[in-house]
Amino acid sequence: MKAIIVDDERLARNELKRLLENFPKINIVGEAANADEAIQLIDELHPDLLFLDIQMPGKTGFDLLSELEGYVPEVIFTTAYDEYAIKAFEFNALDYLLKPIELHRLSEAVQKVEEEIQHQQERTDTAKEGVKVLGDNDQVFVKDGEKCWFVRLGKVRLFESMGNYVRLYFDDQKPLVLKSLNALEERLDSKVFFRANRKHIINLQFIDKIEPWFSGGLQVTLRGSGEKIEISRRQAIRFKELLSL
């Protein structure tokens, strides 16, 4: 299991590495002292796991996760502050360890990671047996509470991540389905549905207007609804390549 430690304090990184010597399945493949260094390492090494500090000079650990596109490792937050716990789990963190980190708590966190990665592999193996890419003409069954829909995917203009759920936007409906945005992205036709940022997938057929946005990104306005969605800087490069002559 490949892991990266992200912490601006060298002593904290060294202490965590010392504790992780008790877990031979964890292979520390890199260290970063800030978010920008970490993003570069994640792109290069595709680790399975991040041990991530929250309060760092410049960008926080939350900022780092918000800037990741596509591939996102499992996350264990390591911090000296307990007030960020609720927000941490909004980012689907597997655990939240308070410094100084105790060995038994680290052991519990590592076990959670091992179980989650095993479950992911099982889901991947199952999906490969009969995976089908869904296009805009495919119809899907959606159930939210007592309400049910049989909707053509081409009518869905937007998918929005809501923790472990995804909200679908079509007509004037906004049902929630129990599925991660990453899992959903693997099933959708990339010629029609585009990953705009960490939280959104947009239907390219619904784009009404495109504007330059901050830091080299773009902002698109969706036809009919008027919803404005940011395309992050890194995804904006892919977007231009995809839609240019």
UniProtKB/TrEMBL annotation:
SMART domains in UniProt: LytTR, REC
UniProtKB keywords: Coiled coil, Phosphoprotein
4-aspartylphosphate found at: D53
A family per Pfam: Response_reg
Domain HTH LytTR-type: from-to ranges: 142-245
Xref: PANTHER family: STAGE 0 SPORULATION PROTEIN A HOMOLOG, TRANSCRIPTIONAL REGULATOR-RELATED
Protein name: Two component transcriptional regulator, LytTR family
Organism: Pseudarcicella hirudinis
Taxonomic lineage: Bacteria, Pseudomonadati, Bacteroidota, Cytophagia, Cytophagales
